[in-house]
Amino acid sequence: MRLFAIGDTHLPSTRNKDMHRFGWAEHPLPLQRAWDEKVRPEDIVIVAGDISWATRPPEVLEDLKWLNERPGRKVLVRGNHDYWWGDSASKLRKLLEPFSTLEAFLQNCAVVMGPWLIAGSRLWTAPEAPPMPGGEMGDEAADLSYVERETRRLNTSIEDALKKEKQSPTPLRRVVAVHFPPVYANERPTAFSGPIEAFQPKVCVYGHLHAAGIAAGFTGERAGVRYVLASCDAAGFSPVLLDEA
């Protein structure tokens, strides 16, 4: 069993919003081919936010069907463009119910998938972020109220992970999955990097960054945590292998 991640699938929804203007030729076909070739049904795949351009639940159904048809058991993370997601966990659970491989999502909780204990939240742009290209696929402005809220959500998820870890009859491998970068290439500590590094996951995966903005994210090891950027274009339109059990 293996653990993969891919972020920023930016599926078209019934709004038929394509990615051609961003240089993503034939998207999502290259991702579909790589995913189907690389991932097996028993593998776990973290989908790290910005899943679909849909703004309402009815608009996202075809995109969820597309995800459901890809191999692997999925864990979904909300991105800043996932307006269809809403704030109700029970409504989201009902929306995902028909799609058997969309097994879990992170919303003020942690999930156990195979040997992995996965915590995380959407996060937001931290004040420590360097200047990055803006626009529709660029960065959101730092907003302290959003940062504070997402810090609370991240801590709630980590607390739930620690409870689940205590209850587990077997050892679990800690993983954090988020959408926004928790730390940037400048390596300045953020409100998010502290809780994550205190939790000491095996790996922390994130997305959100595209094109020229990719260089702004920190990747590699820091404070005992391996940080991986898995946004679709940063990953070469192919799920990224995070771990193997």
TrEMBL record:
InterPro entries, per the entry: Calcineurin-like_PHP, Metallo-depent_PP-like, Metallophosphoesterase_sf
Molecular function terms from GO: hydrolase activity
Q: Which Pfam families match?
A: Metallophos (PF00149)
Q: Highest taxon of the source?
A: Bacteria
Q: Which parts of the sequence belong to the Calcineurin-like phosphoesterase domain?
A: 1-211
Q: What is this protein called?
A: Calcineurin-like phosphoesterase domain-containing protein
Annotated source species: Stigmatella aurantiaca
